[in-house]
Every structure is written in C-alpha cells, then in structure tokens.
Amino acid sequence: MNIKKNDVFKSDIFRILFKSTKASFLTSFSTFLIIFSSLLFSCTTALYYEAERPAQVDLHGATSIAILPFRVGERGNEFAVFGHKNEAQKDFADYITSKLTKTIVDGKYFSVIEARRFENALHRMGVSSLGTSCDVYISGNIINWDEKIEKEDRSDGENTKVAYKKTVRTTVVYQIIEVETNQVLAREQKNFLQTSSWYDGIESLPKSDVMLRFDADNMIKQIMKEIQPYTVSNRIDLMKNDKKIFPDDNSMFEVALSLAKKGMYESAEQSFLAMYDKTPMNFYAGYDAAVMMLVQKNFEQAKALLEDVLEEYLAWEVQSSENELGFAKKLDTEDFQRKVRKAYVQCETEMAFQKKLENQRK
Fold it and tell me: Are 188 and 173 in contact, with CB atoms under 8 Å apart?
C-alpha cells in the first residue's frame, strides 16, 4: 500500500468530503447512505490524548517575568468606600499576588524577578533603563469592593434567633505588560460574586477575602494559560471491527484496540496497518492506524494515511458491483466520513498549534 498520493487527487478527495452538504455530493452518494448502517454507534470506542497548546497571549519570546503586588483601588490606595480601611481587600490582593507568584515559580517556565527589586528599578530608572533584566510584568487592582450582610429572624415556635448571610462582590483588573516597549499585551477585567450560607451568629460568617478565593484561583488558571503553554485533553473515536464483515480480522483488531486503550500506540498502529495492508477494504483499520499516528504527534503521516483510506474507499465505492454493495450494506458511510473529517481537521489543528508553539519559543 502506497500512502503517498498525488496532491491534486488528495485535494479533490477532501474537497468532495468537506462539501458533503451540497446537492451534487448527495446525489453521487445517495445510493451509499445506507452503507454500514448496523454499525453506526456500536462500533466505536473513545480515546483521550493530551495535546499542548500555545500561550493565548504572544509574549514575544519572554523568558523572565515579574509579578507586582496587586493593589486595592484604582490608584493603589488601600481604603474602601467611606474612607474606612478594609483589611479583607488588602488580604485578598495579597492572596492573589502570592498565589500567582507561587504558581508561576512552580511552573518553571519563566525566570521570576523579585517584585520589590523590579519596582525599585522601575521607579528609579524607568522602563527604558531596565533593559533585558525583565521581559514582562503583571500588575492588577482590586476595585468596586462591596460587602452586604443580611439578617433574618427565625423562630422555632418558642425562641427567635437571628441568622446572617454575607454577599461579597468585587472586580479584579489585571494587565500583562512588555517591559521594553511598555506595551500592554493583555488586559482583563474579572467580576467576582459570592454569597455565604446562613449562619446563626454574625461572628460565624466567613471572611470576605476567603469567600472570593475560588474565583481568584480560577482567574489565576486563566492567567497561566495566557502566559505559557498548557495541556488539554482531546477525544477522538476509534472504530471497531465487525466480525460479520471481516471475521478473519476480528481477533487481531481486538488486540490492537486493547493496545491503544493501554497507551501502547506504536504497537497498536503497527497492528492496524498490518490489517489494512492485508485487507484494503477494511477502512476502519486504516482509519484507526491514522488515529494512532495522530496521538503520537505524527500529524503529516496521519493526514497522508487518512487521504489514502478515503481514496481507497472512494475507489471501492465506484468499482463495487451490486453484489458487493449488498455485502457492504452493514457499513455506515455517513458515520465513517464524519470520523475521517474530524480526524483530518484535528491533524491540521494540531499542526497549526505546533507551529505557533515553535514561534513562541524563538
């Protein structure tokens, strides 16, 4: 089996595949829409694999970063409304600063510049004089802080007790700034709102800053995705063999699927390829082999094999006699093409992300 095909023919194949909603395509395939019908959902199994994604913000190859202390108020003042100092705001700002700093340090992707040293240099010498000592920095403010305590009389028939509930809301604004150009690479505003349960005593209410930590942690997770590569879990479907169609391949197919589920992708790939070489009409085996290449990050090979599988399928479709069509009515053309389309798009998507990752690391 030669999986390297003519580029023009390849593009024609996928042009047909991706225009499946057009009338011309529906007409040419109308006879075959019932093919594979008995295997629509019973012959697939899900496989999950991890893939790396580039940082959502282009930091222009930054390798060092400083996290400035998050401030309370628009201009960094530490006073709430009415001029009363609010320790909860200050504690919340400190929590964000320390948690974000620790998360970045633990990630080991950046060299973290000590914030006080960076701030002193920034105020003393200005941005232009910092040179390459720090590439980017993150700063932020806690604004629009509001706390509300509600009370409610509760009676059990004999005694009346007062129950209390607290609601805290605030807004956090943060920005990621490039030191050399003083350019704001990203600026986000997050609104937080949390309400406690009812408590018997006002002294039992949770601290306001502690109530908002869940929101702060989620914001920090988002910041990490913005500044450095991260990992996602992707799903792709494998196709199972049907012993009624290819009984000779059933035992080997089950072994290959078992290898795939155990994460032994290279061995599974070889098994699927062996079946596809032996029985080119077993398009499921060819598709599964391409999936094994995809999860091993061999995207070019996976794309080429998917093109080959589709080419073999289209050639078989055109050349099949009525008797052969009767034999193959258990197959599901629509489901098969949907899976090929999804796998092909995933290959192209992963290749695009891979290229972006390489550019970010230059």
Answer: yes
175 touches 136 (CB < 8 A): no
The CA-to-CA distance between both ends of the chain, in Å, stands at 39
pLDDT per residue rounded down to tens, the chain (362 residues): 444 444 444 445 554 444 444 444 344 433 333 333 333 334 568 889 899 999 999 999 899 999 999 999 865 444 444 344 489 999 999 999 999 999 999 998 999 998 888 877 777 655 555 555 789 999 999 999 999 999 999 887 788 889 999 999 999 999 999 998 999 999 999 999 999 999 999 999 999 999 999 999 999 999 999 999 999 999 999 988 766 667 778 889 999 999 999 999 999 999 999 999 988 888 899 999 999 999 999 999 999 999 999 888 777 766 665 445 444 444 557 778 888 989 999 999 999 999 998 887 76
How many helices, marked H, and strands, marked E, lie in the chain? 12, 8
The pair of structure tokens assigned to 98 is 């320390």
